[in-house]
Structures are given as structure tokens and as C-alpha cells.
């Protein structure tokens, strides 16, 4: 009898607890590339080396149910439940067990949610064509995107900054697990408020993803990024619009709202892609206030 893959084992356990997801999960599995399937199996092996399969499944179930609860709240109140870091800190960040489940769930959702997978594909295509002296990622999460950028070896130095010691530790562990030891480029993992990182035009490319919706004042963050960016540099920023989640506190209401914020911070849009679930159009998503993930490439206004 053929041994079950980690993916099959995970999916079977997930669907036992969330049978309503059978259609969406089977659909996204059918759209994986062979490389994405291999990467997911490797990601699960990494997680299983640190946690049990039960913990990984529990994390995904916790994350999914939490997003569903916040979505219900958003539909009823036309607003997010949390509006400050203190609110989220109480519910997620300061609770070690919930934080663990949240991060595990997010890791799995990157492969099982089509919108998140498409965001990754956008970044994967983008990072192959970007080069320069200094690369910065703000809020690296568990390190997946930072590692992918680093593996391209197209910058002389790579920095990742996060205010959370936990996030920096997770990124360091992720890099050590996957990284080729003979890599030549320097990288630095910095535990600090990104807005205080530096005031010189140092970075040629800055990535800020899964961050702006988690902070109370994204305009201040973008203005700090403006100060750190070289004159010809670029920024990749993700703006989740009408996208309730247990750790989201700043509500981007519309594409126009995002563009106003980008402009106020001194940027103009070079490239834009809008990712919406279930094949909906932008117009349909705006009318029904469905989530839209705005993937934007920015530069300083001329």
C-alpha cells in the first residue's frame, strides 16, 4: 500500500473538520503547478519537523474559522472588529498558543487559498527581474518571501526588519532550514520598528506585504519607506481591501482609497494587479464589499 504524502494526510484531516471546504480545496489543488506541489510538500515537512500534524491542522482550522468569524462581523458592521494594535495583541500576539496556531494556519493557507497562491505567483514572477545593491523586506513573517528573494542572489545585501522578536526568530529558523550554506551575499535580520530603521536613501527595492493592514497608521509607514528608497528604487506593496482577518486593524475601503494613500505618501503606481476570489470582477467585488488584494509596484513621484 502506497504511503500517504504529507499533503494528502493534511487535506484528509482538514476536510474531516472543515467538510465545507472540499470544493475550494480540490479546486486549488487542481491548479497547482508541479513546482508548487513540491514546495508545499517541503513546507509541510519543515512544519512537521517542528510541530505535529495535529498542530498544523489545528492551526489551519483556527485560522480559517477566525477569518470566517471576522468576515461575518464585517458584513454585519461594515468595519473590522479591531482598530488598534492593543486589540489584536490581546487576542493574538500576546497569546502564545493562538499566535502559534495563527502562523501555522497562515503557512498552510498560502497553498490552499487561491487568492494567496496568486499573490505568491505575482511576487515570484516579479522578483526574478529585480536587482540592485540593497534589498529590504518589512515584516517577513516566517521568512518565505525573504528566502525566495535571497535565493535569486541579485542584490549585494538583504535586510529584513520586524518589530516582533518572534517573527525574526521564525525567519532566522526558516532561512537556516532551507538556505544553501555556501551562499555569498550578506543578509541581516533586524528586530526594530521599520519606521526607525534609517533616514537615508539606501534601498533599491523594498517589500512590504501583510503589514500595512496590521498597523494603525499605514501612511506613516509608507512615508518612512519613501525616505529609505533610492531615487530610482521600487516598492512592492500589498494592500488588502475589505479583507477581514483577526489581525487586520486598518480598513482599506476601495482601490481609490488605496491610491489616495499611495499618493499622499509621495508615490505613484508603476504596475498594479488586483486579485479577487472566485473569478469576480472588480466592480462585483466593490459592490458586495468582497476582498480585493491590490499588488502594487510603486516609485517616487517624479
Report on this model:
With 302 residues, this protein is of the alpha/beta class. The chain folds into two domains: 6-112, no CATH class; 121-300, Vaccinia Virus protein VP39 (Rossmann fold), CATH 3.40.50. The protein is built from twelve helices and seven strands. Strands 3-2-1-4-5-7-6 form a seven-stranded mixed beta sheet, sandwiched between helices. Helix 1 (6-17) packs across helix 4 and helix 6 (96-112) crosses helix 7. It is globular, with a radius of gyration of 19 Å.
Task: Please supply descriptive tags for the structure shown above.
single chain; 302 residues; alpha/beta; Rossmann fold; seven-stranded mixed β-sheet; 12 helices
CATH topology of the largest domain: Rossmann fold
CATH superfamily of the largest domain: Vaccinia Virus protein VP39
The number of E-state strands comes to: 7
Major sheet, described briefly?
7 strands, mixed
Helical proportion?
A: 40-55%
- The overall pLDDT, averaged over residues, is 93
> What is the name of the CATH architecture of the largest domain?
3-Layer(aba) Sandwich
User: What is the overall number of helices?
Assistant: 12
Shape: globular
* Backbone structural class: alpha/beta
Percent of sequence in beta strands: 15-25%
End-to-end Cα distance: 64 Å
CATH class of the largest domain: Alpha Beta
Radius of gyration: 19 Å
Give the neighbour order of strands across the main sheet.
3-2-1-4-5-7-6
Spans of at least 5 consecutive residues with low confidence = none
In N-to-C order, the SSE pattern is HHHHHHHEHEHEEHEHEHE
Q: Give the domain tally.
A: 2
Amino acid at each position: 500500500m502506497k504511503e500517504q504524502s504529507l499533503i494528502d494526510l493534511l487535506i484528509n484531516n482538514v476536510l474531516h473538520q472543515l467538510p465545507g471546504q472540499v470544493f475550494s480545496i480540490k479546486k486549488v489543488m487542481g491548479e497547482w503547478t508541479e513546482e508548487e506541489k513540491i514546495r508545499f510538500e517541503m513546507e509541510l515537512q519543515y512544519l512537521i519537523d517542528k510541530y505535529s500534524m495535529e498542530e498544523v491542522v489545528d492551526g489551519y482550522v483556527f485560522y480559517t474559522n477566525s477569518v470566517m468569524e471576522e468576515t461575518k462581523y464585517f458584513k454585519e458592521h461594515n468595519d473590522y472588529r479591531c482598530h488598534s494594535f492593543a486589540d489584536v495583541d490581546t487576542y493574538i500576539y500576546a497569546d502564545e498558543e493562538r499566535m502559534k496556531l495563527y502562523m501555522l494556519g497562515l503557512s498552510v493557507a498560502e497553498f490552499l487559498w487561491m487568492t494567496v497562491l496568486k499573490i505568491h505567483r505575482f511576487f515570484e514572477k516579479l522578483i526574478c527581474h529585480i536587482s540592485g545593491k540593497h534589498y529590504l523586506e518589512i515584516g517577513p513573517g516566517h521568512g518565505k518571501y525573504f528566502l525566495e528573494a535571497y535565493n535569486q542572489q541579485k542584490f549585494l545585501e538583504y535586510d529584513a526588519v520586524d518589530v516582533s522578536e518572534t517573527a525574526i526568530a521564525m525567519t532566522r529558523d526558516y532561512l537556516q532550514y532551507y538556505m544553501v550554506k555556501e551562499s555569498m551575499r550578506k543578509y541581516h535580520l533586524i528586530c526594530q520598528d521599520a519606521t526607525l530603521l534609517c533616514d537615508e536613501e539606501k534601498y533599491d527595492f523594498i517589500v512590504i506585504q501583510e503589514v500595512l493592514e496590521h498597523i494603525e497608521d499605514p501612511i506613516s509607514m509608507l512615508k518612512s519607506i519613501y525616505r529609505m528608497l533610492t531615487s530610482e528604487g521600487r516598492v512592492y506593496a500589498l494592500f488588502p481591501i475589505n479583507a477581514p482577518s483577526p489581525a487586520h486593524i486598518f480598513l482599506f475601503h476601495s482601490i481609490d482609497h488605496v491610491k489616495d494613500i499611495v499618493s499622499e505618501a509621495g508615490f505613484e503606481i508603476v504596475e498594479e494587479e488586483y486579485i479577487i476570489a472566485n473569478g469576480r470582477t472588480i466592480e462585483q467585488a466593490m459592490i458586495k464589499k468582497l476582498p480585493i488584494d491590490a499588488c502594487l509596484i510603486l516609485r517616487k513621484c517624479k
